[in-house]
Amino acid sequence: MRRTFRLILPEEFDAYMNMALEEAIYEAVRDGKSPPTIRLFSWKPSAVSIGYFQGIRNEVNLDEVHRRGYQVVRRITGGGAVFHDNEGETTYSIIAGEDLFPKDITKSYEQICGILISALERLGIKATFKPINDILVDGRKISGSAQTRRMGVLVQHGTLLYSVDQDTLFGLLNGDADEKTRLTRSKRKVVTSVTEHSDATKDDMIDALVKAFSSAYTVGKGDYTKEELLRAGELSRDKYSTDAWNFQR
Amino acid sequence: MRSAVAKAHVAGGKRIRLDVEIDDDAKEIVSMRITGDFFLLPEEAIADMEKIFAGMSIPVDTAGIERSVRGFLAGRHARLVGATPEAIAQLAKEATS
């Protein structure tokens, strides 16, 4: 397995293509056709992603998602529902041989989240890792990640919040229907974003992420391969945009 | 036939929700769905883990469920993160009581 990471700078895709690219890159890394990869990306239109095990109707206000013209997609990873605001967050993923990371899952979250924490430090923001998979600033969540491992390859992706529209966020997420009121009240206090702690622009945040990943690993800027894009197109059409996948739970 | 739900936030972990179909006449679980923001690697193992509960007698044996889930995870080389066999067993008891 090659140890120099390919770093793909942010591009916008829709929710289905974003998740399809994760799987296409995973397959290419698994098959030795692509190097380990760090990917930064955004979602257009804005979207909600849900964890593999979540009940879509329990977690997502589908009427509100559709009313806004957003998308909803199920991830290949567990974890919780995430609102990917086109303007308000950047998503990262790291797809590489499992042997590059601790075997212990929580420790591997801590290692990779440590890179995001160092990116936040570059913006003057002190953040801490909270097991299992969160990053907090002043006790409030600024980043969440989700990981899977298949056939010797680790796939971890997560969001880093740049700015949060709390009303939109909690209007889209049910947090399990009968707990909605309680969660809506409490989550307003437990979520934060870069703009609450820094004057950094979103480009500054992305630059900090690039520098942090470049410090942690040997990286070279790269792009998607033709094969990855073609495979992602298939997966987007045949898997991630289908009700069979998204409404399986 | 009736449906029941039980859910919990595992201490230091994640949320789990069990949706259970119960046959009161036969006093057994017909099916169970386990959802939440926990992690299970490999993810596809969840469907087989849910099958453990089909046909299980009510009242459920929580210690037996724990053993069954642990045995399944070990045999499937699966890792459950943010949830525990104990929590699943307790929720199964709660949903079927």
Helix content of chain B: 25-40%
SSE ordering of chain B = EEEEHHEH
Radius of gyration of chain B: 12 Å
Give the amount of beta strand of chain A, in percent.
Answer: 25-35%
**Average pLDDT score of chain B:** 96
Strand order of the largest sheet of chain A: 7-8-9-10-6-2-1-11
What is the CA–CA distance across the termini of chain A? 35 Å
**Derived structural class of chain B:** alpha+beta
Radius of gyration of chain A: 17 Å
**Overall body shape of chain A:** globular
Low-confidence stretches of chain B: none
Can you walk me through this structure?
The complex is a heterodimer of chains A (249) and B (97). In chain A, helix 1 (15-30) crosses helix 8 (226-240). Chain A has helices at 15-30, 56-59, 62-67, 105-122, 166-172, 180-190, 202-216, 226-240, 243-246; strands spanning 5-13, 37-43, 47-50, 71-74, 82-84, 89-97, 128-130, 134-137, 140-150, 153-161, 219-221. With 249 residues, chain A is α/β, with parallel strands linked by helices. Chain A has an eight-stranded mixed β-sheet with strand order 7-8-9-10-6-2-1-11, with helices on both faces. A three-stranded mixed β-sheet of chain A has the order 4-3-5. By secondary structure, chain B is α+β, with helices and mostly antiparallel strands. Chain B is 34% helix and 33% strand. In chain B, the strands form two sheets. Chain B has a three-stranded antiparallel β-sheet with strand order 1-2-3. A two-stranded antiparallel sheet of chain B has the order 4-5. Chain B is built from three helices and five strands, in the order E-E-E-E-H-H-E-H. In chain B, a hairpin with a 4-residue loop joins strand 2 (15-23) and strand 3.
